[in-house]
Design a protein that fits this description.
cytoplasm; protein homodimerization activity; ATP-dependent dethiobiotin synthetase BioD; two-stranded parallel ribbon; alpha/beta; ATP binding; 222 residues; 9 helices; Rossmann fold
């Protein structure tokens, strides 16, 4: 049986990649054939091998099943803009192509983390959002919440949007991007407003490498 989850956030730059890589590492230790899939990335770096996205590189590095970079990240763009601004005839994103990419990943792996771009309703072309693809594929969703002022409102709104899409909402993680004194208050309040399970917290670290080098006590989704 193939297990897969779509990682979304209350906004962009909330820590989706941090959560994704930690989950891949933990699942690998449990013996799963793991793989990360970053269907769309923007703000990529031009290299001698083509456009490369740091998030996708982390996913590739922390997957124990090896894929070509282009299989992990089939749609990459140089400019740091919403995908619908960049979608063009030379690199045209469609829901079908996203699904084909996922099938390639599923052929070799049985535990897959799919990392979104931006928030839940990130548009990819015309009036189509990445959420429409997640709904089409019926992929369970995990929400990453950046612990800061405003996160409660963003969480409630995003939760309602996910539930309205009819997909399974598997739970949420708190990511502490700064030494916020009211972390537990935020988590307590969010738990009062949403029913989905709290799966764990990424503590604040001055050096992001400390997160990847240490064992973080978070739960895998079910």
């Amino acid at each position: 049986m193939i297990k897969k989850w779509f990682i979304t956030g209350t906004n962009t730059n909330v820590g989706k990649t941090i959560i994704s890589t930690i989950l891949l590492k933990k699942a690998s230790k449990l013996g799963f054939n793991t793989a990360g899939y970053k269907p769309i990335s923007t703000g990529c770096t031009q290299t001698i091998n083509g456009l490369r996205n740091q998030d996708a590189i982390f996913l590739k590095k922390n997957s124990n099943i090896k894929f070509k970079y282009e299989e992990i990240n089939p749609f990459s763009f140089y400019n740091p803009l919403p995908p619908n601004f960049l979608n063009n005839k030379n690199n045209h994103i469609t829901l079908k192509k996203l699904s084909i990419g996922l099938k390639i990943i599923q052929k070799k792996s049985n535990w897959i983390i799919i990392e979104g771009i931006g928030g839940w309703y990130t548009p990819i072309f015309k009036k189509i959002t990445l959420a429409d693809w997640v709904k089409k594929e019926k992929i369970p969703v995990i929400l990453v919440i950046k612990m800061e002022i405003g996160c409660i409102n963003h969480t409630i709104l995003t939760t309602q949007a996910i539930l309205n899409s009819g997909v399974q909402f598997s739970g949420w993680y708190a990511n502490c991007i700064k030494p916020e004194p009211y972390i537990l208050n935020y988590i307590y309040t969010i738990n009062k407003f949403i029913k989905q399970p709290f799966l764990g917290m990424i503590p604040y670290c001055k050096d992001i490498n400390d997160i990847y080098n240490n064992t973080i006590n978070i739960n895998l989704p079910k």
